[in-house]
Write a structure and sequence with these properties.
Strand content: 5-15%
Largest sheet: 6 strands, parallel
Oligomer: single chain
Distance between the termini: 59 Å
CATH class: Alpha Beta
Number of strands: 6
Radius of gyration: 18 Å
């Protein structure tokens, strides 16, 4: 029995490694290496934050907001943004799932329950703000439960063009065991949710290609450029200000 389990684990690992070693489609790729290296600025962000004076403007229309973290990140990575949104007057809630290890029918169902509970508890639809993969979750939630979603704001989320137009799809294959274009849930990534949907993207993004995060007309209502890194979407004042402006619209 133990031998069978070991063999099964080895087979699963070989499968994941094979997925990670697949070729990228011709003409598709992530941002250039210099942009990827630029993402390392997040390592000095805590020190930089200690000397930064940043107080967001008060919200004209306070909302209930759910933040959805990016791939392989925990909600704690979005805590700085959460505190700034709260300082502006919004009610900010976590997504309730801990680390984001990719989509499953189970965690999508849990998010639907979480969304329903927040909307009922606060008596209003919830604004969904999703970073990277979290934005893809937000878009799919809005398609399934549009009556409980006020609007969707994605930040560097690869919903358009090719699912492999980024620099982490190999890691995604290795961790999840499935291809980015073959998730274990029924989705149509580029289809626009039936609620206001805004895509924040950055020409400085070192992880997701700007074309994939910006989207095309019909895939989102509006696209807004923010000059920050991909990691910076979670803490850069320019990104936080962009989110605050969208929540006030």
């Amino acid at each position: 029995m133990l031998g069978g389990q070991i063999a099964g684990a080895r087979g699963a690992l070989r499968h994941r490694i094979a997925l990670a070693r697949e070729d990228c489609p011709e003409g598709v790729g992530g941002p250039p290496l210099r942009r990827l290296v630029g993402e390392l600025e997040w390592l000095v962000e805590p020190a930089r934050r200690a000397f930064r004076r940043y107080e967001p403007a008060a919200a004209r229309r306070p909302r209930t907001v759910m933040l959805l973290p990016g791939f392989a990140t925990h909600p704690v990575r979005m805590r700085y943004m959460a505190r700034r949104l709260e300082a502006a007057g919004h009610r900010v809630k976590r997504w309730g799932l801990g680390f984001n290890w990719g989509p499953t029918e189970g965690n999508i169902a849990s998010l639907e329950t979480r969304l329903e509970d927040l909307a009922a508890r606060h008596g209003e639809p919830v604004a969904l703000v999703g970073w990277s993969l979290g934005g893809l979750f937000a878009r799919e939630l809005a398609k399934r439960r549009p009556g409980e979603v006020a609007k969707v704001v994605t930040m560097g989320s690869p919903f358009s063009w090719s699912p492999r137009a980024n620099n982490v799809w190999r890691a995604y294959h290795l961790v999840t065991g499935h291809r980015v274009e073959e998730p274990p849930v029924a989705v149509e990534l580029s289809a626009k949710p039936p609620v206001e949907t805004v895509a924040l993207w950055s020409p400085r993004d070192g992880i997701v290609h700007p074309r994939a995060a910006c989207g095309a007309p019909g895939e989102r209502d509006r696209a807004v450029a923010v000059r920050c890194t991909h990691m910076g979407f979670a803490y850069d004042p320019r990104a936080i200000d962009a989110v605050l402006r969208e929540l006030d619209r």
